Amino acid sequence: MRTVGIIGLGLIGGSMAIDLKKRGFADKVLGVEADKVAAQAAMTIGLADEMVSLEDCVDRSDIIVVAVPVGAAVKMLPEILDRIGEKKIVIDVCSTKEHICAAVKYHPARKQFVCTHPMAGTEYSGPWAAQPGLFDGRACIFADQEESAPWAVQTILELYACLNMRPIFMSSSSHDIHTAYVSHISHITSFALALTVLDKEKDEKHIFDLASGGFSSTVRLAKSNADMWIPILTQNHNNVLQVMDTYIEKMQQFRDAVASYDEEALRKLIEDANKIKRIIR
Amino acid sequence: MRTVGIIGLGLIGGSMAIDLKKRGFADKVLGVEADKVAAQAAMTIGLADEMVSLEDCVDRSDIIVVAVPVGAAVKMLPEILDRIGEKKIVIDVCSTKEHICAAVKYHPARKQFVCTHPMAGTEYSGPWAAQPGLFDGRACIFADQEESAPWAVQTILELYACLNMRPIFMSSSSHDIHTAYVSHISHITSFALALTVLDKEKDEKHIFDLASGGFSSTVRLAKSNADMWIPILTQNHNNVLQVMDTYIEKMQQFRDAVASYDEEALRKLIEDANKIKRIIR
Questions:
Q1: Residue numbers in B near A276 (CB within 8 A)
Q2: How far is A44 from chain B (nearest CA, A)?
Q3: Distance to chain B for A224, nearest Cα, Å
Q4: How buried is residue B162: exposed, middle or buried, by Cβ count under 10 Å (0-12/13-18/19+)?
């Protein structure tokens, strides 16, 4: 009989709740949701067997999943570790890892914490966005796993195996560098694209009419939630700034090539960019 | 008995060939393809009933579709109009329209030319990329349609109705402004994103592992073909530069907000960007 407590029943927490229960990893799911409307929705949708207080959740669960925005998680984690019994495990699912790991580094219960980042999601948020199969086939990063007890890591590997995720191991600082390069910058370029189009194109009808599949897919991430992304961008400040500077530089090269009708430079830039085909389907 | 000749059997020309034949708009499809390998592939795939020379295609077709990159189309269109008989219609399907319309503005057969831009596509090119249903539900722009004979416009409206496209009418200069804002900039931001990630992240394994759905969709257009995009960006030079400048400005505002940990400015930027939800599904 295993009870999984999930703090924050949004897109990630809610989707985990669905599959961990359905696929038999959890016999019981306890949910914690600070927002009243979201809590009501989570119950209506049936994401958790029971909605409980944070304290009840910690006391009654074998595994506690912290699935709140990273700013709140940094504050919450040490408090949870303060009150957990010996055999319990706490994990987080946040998108930046250095601050999280630093916040619990010297905590006496550090070994019972496993720091993970399931690399899956959509541009939507809240319990309404939760869906079965969200994690299937994606990668899950385990950050600084040598700081956790092997038995705890083993159990969490099983949890993610149940979600059909493949584990990748790296340090929390590597995680933050690589996700800035690959994930965080994509969100920023989409936000900037949406701002540009909304600014230049005052007539929404035109945007709607002219948005072919290309624009929609490029701008999709611009729907992402501010509460989630503000702490990611500020916590991963240095890495994000570095990659933004490289991006602005590439954009400037493109602008110069267009401005000077330099077809050779444009060809080089486009064909270099095409190399992403080798990596991304 | 209606014969449609398609010059350039790539993604757009090839996809039109498939549906115009299958759905009964064309009784016969003649194909022209300058590239030998592509021509062979188009025949193998069965995109055209017959591969012919450009001259044969013009002489034997009732409707001639010019589906080559816009640089080549600008040169080819006056030559085609030079030799067409009275009842034939020529259309192009290029992504910029001002240069095209200027190139034929005073041609004696101008009324038999209908300038269109079906807003559909994928990041792939060549006859291999052609697919049925590519145009279904999308918009097709008719540029400067008052310069064409009404009977010619009517026939081409029927052609696009067969492809399940909804027609939108605007001037060629409006077209080029709006597509720069909505379509061309999306491609440039994707190219720059691919260049940034490939530059910062030398380890391809990391890109593969960490690329969640978000990165893949944002970078998708970076696979687009240089031969197609170089003429678009140079022909739509002024509009593209203007929108790139706005984009770089938005990116810089984002950078400044991250650099100064300005959470209020970040919230405003992200929530303004979120407004794209109202327009794009």
A1: 194, 197-198, 219, 222-223
A2: 25
A3: 7
A4: middle
